[in-house]
Amino acid sequence: NAGVTQTPKFRVLKTGQSMTLLCAQDMNHEYMYWYRQDPGMGLRLIHYSVGEGTTAKGEVPDGYNVSRLKKQNFLLGLESAAPSQTSVYFCASSYGRTGAYGYTFGSGTRLTVV
Amino acid sequence: GENVEQHPSTLSVQEGDSAVIKCTYSDSASNYFPWYKQELGKRPQLIIDIRSNVGEKKDQRIAVTLNKTAKHFSLHITETQPEDSAVYFCAASKGGYQKVTFGIGTKLQVIP
Predict the structure, then answer these.
(1) Among A49, A23, A33, A44, which Cα is nearest to A87's?
(2) Residues 26-85, chain A, touching B (beta carbon < 8 A)
(3) 8 A C-beta contact, residue A29 and residue A51
(4) CA of A51, closest CA in chain B: separation in Å?
(5) CB count in 10 Å sphere of residue A70
(6) CA distance A87 to A43
(7) What dihedral angle (degrees, nearest 10) is formed by the CA atoms of A70, A76, A79, A81?
(8) Which of B46, B101, B103 sits opposite A103 (nearest CB)?
(9) Beta strand pairing status for B45-51 and B32-38?
(10) Can you tell me the distance from the alpha carbon of A81 to that of B79, in angstroms, rounded to the nearest whole number?
(11) What are phi and psi of B20, to 5 degrees?
(12) pLDDT grade for B65, boundaries at 50, 70 and 90
């Protein structure tokens, strides 16, 4: 099992460029999440999904869009990148059933916007 | 919404000593409290969790305690080893798909 796979691992964007981060999980998990991690601010939820075809806003959704067309994939899009979006992005998934709430995280994407 | 406060932000202990990290939460409806360990440059990994119907849970050298009345929970690591050096995050949620709110993390350094 690969678990949760994120691509790409690193990316440098110019201000105003767009990009899509891909998260794929092979654990048949219901719930998927996108977090950003910044120094001194912990992990903050951007968007999440409770099932195929559903998405919802998290704590810091502005400037991001998401889609979950297939249960195993959760895409995070930046339409017009800004330097404030420089961060490490983590995707996570959880089974969501009783007793299985813990997250499995991907390895992260380090994004720099110049 | 939920607010999770975590302290200390950094903690240095001698190898073999114990380490304690404390967290408080604001939403009395929260009932699931996981702890994650993140080694440098790696992904966070779940190390232990506790639900609101349990006061304490142990797994080898790590334990978590929960005081629902005071709305605080703690991670205890005994007989610390250099490989315990990492950033530890506490978190709280209402379970299921409810979003998890993380603390800001504690950087633990175990000095050999």
Answers:
(1) A44
(2) 30-31, 33, 40-45, 48, 50, 58-59
(3) no
(4) 10
(5) 11
(6) 11
(7) -160
(8) B46
(9) antiparallel
(10) 46
(11) -130, 130
(12) very high
Rounded Cα gap, residues A48 and A55, in angstroms: 6
Task: Give the C-alpha separation, B77 to B101, whole Å.
Answer: 22
Residue A41 has φ and ψ, to the nearest 5°, of: -125, 5
A102 by DSSP, 3-state: which? coil
What is the DSSP secondary structure assignment for residue B40, as one 8-state letter? T
Q: Give me the residue from A103, A104, A106 closest to B100, CB to CB.
A: A103
Sign of CA dihedral A96, A64, B35, B72: negative
The per-residue pLDDT for range B17-49, each reduced to its tens digit, is 999 999 999 999 999 999 999 999 999 999 999
The closest alpha carbon to A47, from A32, A29, A37, A27, belongs to A32
Neighbouring residues of A57: CB distance < 8 A, sequence distance ≥ 6: A47
